[in-house]
Amino acid sequence: MRAICFYFQVHQPFRYRRYRFFDIGNDHYYYDDFANESILRKVADRCYLPANKLMLELVKKHKGKFKIAYSISGLALEQFDLYTPEVLDSFRALAETGHVEFLSETYSHSLVALKNKELFIRQIQEHDALIEKHFGQKPTVFRNTELVYSDQIGQTIADLGFKAMLTEGAKHILGWKSPNYLYVNAINPRLKVLMRNFKLSDDIAFRFSNQGWNEYPLTADKYVRWINAKKENEIFNLFMDYETFGEHQGAETGIFKFLEALPDEVIKSGKLQFATPSEIAENFQPVSAVNVPHTISWADEERDLTAWLGNQLQNEAFDKLYDLSERMQKVTDPDLVKDFNFLQASDHFYYMCTKFFSDGEVHKYFNPYETPYEAFINYMNILNDFSLRLDKVAPTGEINKEIKALKKVIEEKDKKLSKYEAELKALQSKTKPTPVKKAGKK
Q: Could you tell me the residue ranges of all domains in the chain?
């Protein structure tokens, strides 16, 4: 039987206060506590609490036939703990049903996979420890920040023992192929790859309340008819932000009624079932490898990294942040570690985006700053203060001394190796037997 895989992303960054140039070196507290608490409270009341309540009712009503998956960033879990513990309780109630899967991701909802493999792995481990602590599950499926994926990233995830990874079903990657099948990583075929059906996902996430859309209004029975019409396809990966329900699409749009009716229509059709990502990986056969030599994401029309690393501002901030990662390995101070983790959230680079064409409205909606330049200046002021604090714990000079010492050791070893190789060649030439000349015919 064919399957629908419902996955929801849950993330909230720690937002920064307006941090001025004159604050550098004088004030080391960066966070807008009022904005963080009030925004989370609003989203919890409009989305997380009512959506979780409905999801729990649907799972219980359909006795395990309705299944879903979540990826909750470490930063979101920290904020739930601080401001809305009842949201955390409602996710725990979903976990206890046994029909809800929690996926792995990076603790900071970061793009660290593009910069530092060791730090990438550490963030995954930190995140998964939180998932086990709160929900009693050890994730077996990985979802990278913003569905960022490449063959190399997939290989790293396979080496860590994950059975599957989620990414975008980008047209320029799939070509004539369909995202509605299971694929494998091109380097390590042990890793299954689930690819998002962006059209069916965006019909709910972006177009649902658009009265100018030629398919408006979208109903559950119409949506299931669309899926059933694709008779040859096997899986339908519907991946979206959880804030779709109640926040991006307000309750007044009928989004909750649509969600409530959907499982009934799917089950009634008799041709479809719901499955979690790990069940998809276990129960379906891959059709081929998917080749992704260059990194993709689920953002914008281009499905690339330009939403976060598409201009000089973003790249400068990104590079300067990860230039500190080597020195951060020596740091044990919890405040510095926390601030470094929060600085890595991809949202901060998203705020600096200068794309105002095909996806400008989307970028504007999520941006708390008036301009990308304001976002850049605020971030860099905070990063400069953080660097000053780091200098006191792990001075640049000490790091340079260690690097020089290591280089010296390596150079000395190279000299010794060259010497030994020369001696070995000399010995081999001395012990080489003299060839015997064969007697010629008379």
A: 2-290, 308-396
How many beta carbons lie within 10 A of that of residue 33, not counting itself? 13
**Position 358 confidence tier, pLDDT thresholds 50, 70, 90:** very low
Give yes or no for a contact between 274 and 68, defined as CB atoms under 8 angstroms apart.
yes
Environment class of residue 409 by beta-carbon count within 10 Å: exposed (0-12), middle (13-18) or buried (19+)?
exposed
- Residue 441: what pLDDT? 44
CB distance 352 to 379 below 8 Å: yes
Has domain 2-290 been given CATH number 3.30.420.40? no
361 part of the active site: no
Give the global pTM: 0.87
Contact 125, 359 (CB under 8 A): no
Q: Where are the beta strands (DSSP E) in 242-322?
A: 272-274, 288-290
pLDDT tens-digit map of 284-337: 999 999 999 999 999 888 899 999 999 999 999 999 999 999 999 989 999 999
435 Cα distance to chain centroid: 66
- Per-residue pLDDT tens over the stretch 125-183: 999 999 999 999 999 999 999 999 999 999 999 999 999 999 999 999 999 999 999 99
Helix (H, G, I), strand (E, B) or coil at 148: coil
Burial class from Cβ neighbours inside 10 Å (0-12, 13-18, 19+) for residue 312 reads: exposed
Q: For the range 93-98, what are the long-range contacts, defined as Cβ-Cβ under 8 Å and sequence gap of 24 or more?
A: 93/52, 93/56, 94/52, 94/55, 94/56, 94/59, 94/68, 94/70, 95/134, 95/135, 95/136, 95/137, 97/56, 97/59, 97/60, 97/64, 98/64
Distance between CA atoms of residues 138 and 399, nearest Å: 37
Cβ atoms of residues 119 and 156 within 8 Å: no
The two tokens of residue 295 are 């990194």
In 3D space, the residue among 221, 160, 210 whose CA is nearest the CA of residue 185 turns out to be 160
pLDDT of residue 359: 45
The Cα–Cα gap between 441 and 436 comes to 16
* Residue among 313, 294, 400 nearest 354 (CA): 313
pLDDT of residue 184: 98
For residue 273, give the 3-state DSSP assignment: strand
The tally of CA atoms less than 13 A away on the side-chain side of residue 403 is 8
- From 146, 168, 243, 265, the catalytic residue: 146
